Amino acid sequence: MVNLKRAEAHLSNEEIRRYSRHLIMPEVGLEGQKKLKSASVLLIGAGGLGSPLGMYLAAAGVGRIGLVDFDVVEYSNLQRQVVYSTQDIGRPKLEAARERLVGINPNVTVETHQTHLNSENALEILKEYDVIIDGTDNFPTRYLVNDASVLLGKPNVYGSIFRFEGQASVFYAKEGPCYRCLYPEPPPPGLVPSCAEGGVLGVLPGIIGTIQAMEAIKLIIGQGDLLIGRLLLFDALRMKFRELRLRKNPFCPICGAHPTIHQLIDYEAFCGLAPRPEDRGRVTEWEITVQELKTKLDRHDDIFVLDVREPHEYEICNLGGYLIPLGEIPSRMHELDSSKEIVVHCHTGRRSQRALELLREAGFKKIKNLVGGIAAWASEIDPEMPRY
Amino acid sequence: MSTKILIPTPLRQYTGKADAVEVEGSTVDELLRNLTERYSALKKHLYTEDGKLRSFVNIYVNDEDIRYLDHGKTKVRENDVVSIIPSIAGGGQEM
Predict the structure, then answer these.
(1) How far is A286 from A276, CA to CA, in rounded Å?
(2) Under a CB-based contact definition with an 8 Å cutoff, are residues A290 and A377 in contact?
């Protein structure tokens, strides 16, 4: 349970009516509801997990909810990010989310942090909240959130999803293991697909996000058995929940007996990620922009376009490239002619980066990765192309 | 004697979409060796180039992490279930 330092809250008659289904349960009652009102929760990521999290925590009467995100609402969000409406497209996520949460419960204060969480600002932002909830979509931020939570002594309610499968746990180094105890290191980039590459069934973040919301509320009201030391696994296709035991790693570099990490590090570098071309502002000799590719294709240069997406993605839109899904590159490399100039692309440029590395290792020299993938082509070259 | 290994979603593309595979072996190492012999593309996802289990892949026998049992030498019996649990990062946002 978290230690709430603030003075006890008072509930108005309107709030008592609003929360009556909580108040008549002994596990919550007036005391629990006041704890909720006094509590503060930080949601990192206002996406698929953050949507149900924010809505349920606001409805439940968590007094102060912080949101961290920097995106705007896009069409492809609406399949699962239920906090947003179609008319929110193009708006900053946090502006739309705040409106919705305050609409659900005007007694709640919603604080927005429109920023990319990083090693410089994380401790400053996280320290103002009782409970941290990790609803991010990438490894660098997950390790950052974990480390900042451990250093600040805060519970970190974890949820993660992929296609039909979800994981949830509560990492609370004071009482159990942290994320690094479970996974000391992240996978090298490209080896594990992201949701943007692998897809996710829209309902899944709803299930995992509401489990996170439940754990956050239990932490606040001090009831029940938390997911501390347990990893909950959910397989939606088979509709099965399983549970694995998590142990505190005595050698954990941040929460073990002799920690070696005492401050936040460079998480992009830790996860093996070089700055993206759009961040470093230039392309390397192994990269090509969509404009350059367009010029070459218009000139009828002899270029071989290799598409490393999956066949069902190829069906949605393609550049007429030769299709070899990333997973089949090692066994089908012989189909490619290394003497030709090859441009490899995927959806956003990450899988094709991995393919490029595999091909380079195999001796291919005239090969370039299409920066931003077919998504960049659709937004910069061909507005008629379907975007997904 | 064969033991069931549960394959997580991100790795099913390397096992011909199978979500569970029955493999022979009396220890975790033997099971995984036989598994990666049958599905060779799995190997680089489970092991580093010098043959160590990757640090973002955890192996469980029933509900216990082999790091807290006998690592790869952990004995398995016929009705045990072995799970491969890789880290996943998705949160349903865009990249």
Answers:
(1) 13
(2) yes
Report pLDDT digits (tens) over A153-176. Answer: 999 999 999 888 999 999 999 999
Beta A131-134 vs A40-44: how paired, if at all? parallel
Which residues, 6 or more positions from A13, have their beta carbon under 8 angstroms from its beta carbon? none
A310 Ramachandran zone, left/alpha/beta (phi>0; psi -120 to 50)? beta
Partner-chain contact A205 B91, CB within 8 Å: yes
Q: What angle in degrees, to the nearest 10, is found between the helix axes of A50-60 and A203-221? A: 40
Calpha distance A183→A8 (Å, rounded): 38
Q: Give the distance from residue A342's alpha carbon to the nearest chain B alpha carbon, in angstroms.
A: 24
Compute the nearest-CA separation of B90 from chain A (Å): 4
- In the residue annotation, A178 being an active-site residue is answered as no
Q: Do A192 and B89 touch (CB under 8 A)?
A: yes
Mean pLDDT across A45-55: 97
**In this structure, what is the dihedral angle of CA atoms A306, A310, A315, A317, given to the nearest 10 degrees?**
-50
Q: What is the DSSP letter of A343?
A: E
A89-133 pLDDT, tens digit each: 999 999 999 999 999 999 999 999 999 999 999 999 999 999 999
Verify whether the Cβ–Cβ distance A231 to B89 is below 8 Å. Answer: no
Distance (Å, whole) CA A247 – CA A181: 7
Choose the closest CB to A160 out of B60, B89, B95.
B89
- Sorted by sequence, the CB contacts under 8 Å of residue B79 that are 6+ apart come out as none
- CB atoms inside a 10 Å sphere around CB A77: 23
Please compute the mean of the pLDDT values over residues A219-238 and round it to a whole number: 95
**3-state SS class at A76:** helix
Bridge-based pairing of strands B57-61 and B81-86 is antiparallel
- pLDDT band at residue A291 using 50, 70 and 90 as cut-offs: very high
In this complex, the residue of B65, B86, B95 whose CB is nearest that of residue A192 is: B86
| ipTM given for this complex | 0.86
A346 is catalytic: yes
Number of CB pairs, chain A paired with chain B, less than 8 A apart: 134
Rg (C-alpha) for chain B, rounded Å, is 13
Inter-residue contact A22 to A60 (CB < 8 Å): yes
Tell me the C-alpha distance between A14 and A386, whole Å: 48
More reliable by pLDDT, A196 or A110: A110
Residue B94 has a pLDDT of 36
Those residues whose C-beta lies under 8 Å from the C-beta of residue A288, and which sit 6 or more positions away, are A343, A368, A369, A370, A371
Q: Which of A196, A198, A231 sits opposite B94 (nearest CB)?
A: A196
